[in-house]
Amino acid sequence: MHHDLILETRNLGKSFRGFTAVSDVNLRVRRGSIHALIGPNGAGKTTCFNLLTKFLEPTTGTILFNGIDITRDKPAQIARRGVIRSFQISAVFPHMTVMENVRIGLQRQLGTAYQFWRSERSLDVLNDRAMELLEQVGLTEFADTQTVNLPYGRKRALEIATTLAMEPELMLLDEPTQGMGHEDVDRVTQLIKKVSLGRTILMVEHNMSVVSSIADKITVLQRGAILAEGPYAEVSKDPRVMEAYMGTVDAELQGAH
What span, in angstroms and rounded, lies between the C-alpha atoms of 177 and 143? Predict the structure, then answer.
């Protein structure tokens, strides 16, 4: 019945020494959608991501991926199932080229099978796939650039390429446009839209213009609980949401951004 739901949480909660960071979150992410998690600072968005990838153990509740209970899975098991969070593999090797970084993502995805590719020819296979991914994210011209010399806005594109190398079924993007100027924000937004085809994306994002332009569904968290949910047009008019943001992103919610 729930086959259209790729990810579902039931009564998900996390407490730290009596402080409740996330409380009773019932999240339902539809397969093939772009789903955004928004909310004021301290709303529990990052804690939610940490619970979903098992960087944190939930205090209460259940996490289902494709209808399978993964609440007790270890982070590596969750990644193997195809739930990949972008920063986990952010461009880790600054002194390697952009191309080499993507190739490492591909090798990780092959895992132990990689032993068996160890011939020169196999690396050519990886090179071809790595170049395809770079083309997908618009980084072809930077293939031989040392990652440390990549312009800031393009580093996110590289992270997305290395995430794609891991063959994600569900891609978790944590603040993908943080710290970027307009031009880079637009580029990364378009990129997310493009790579979302045939995939599911759950993202934490502060920038309302990004959320309003690409998210199919938005979940607003406040103090660790779901305050509102729905398409942007609906959520942005919700008086409780406006109040929760109290002037901080009032203008953004009104679309003035």
Answer: 22
Could you tell me the two tokens for 218? Answer: 């938005």
Say if residue 173 is in the same domain as residue 46.
yes
| Residue 186 and residue 157 share a domain | no
Q: Measured between alpha carbons, how far is residue 205 from residues 14, 37, 119, 160 in Å?
A: 21, 7, 42, 15
Same domain flag for 161 and 120: yes
pLDDT at residue 134 tops 50: yes
Least confident of 40-49, 177-186, 242-251: 242-251
Question: Alpha helices, DSSP H only, in the chain?
Answer: 45-52, 75-80, 98-110, 120-136, 152-165, 182-195, 208-214, 232-235, 239-245, 250-253
Q: Give kind and range of the element (H or E) at residue 64.
A: strand 60-65
Residues 6+ apart with CB under 8 A from 211: 36, 38, 205, 218, 232
How confident is the model at residue 203, as a pLDDT?
A: 96
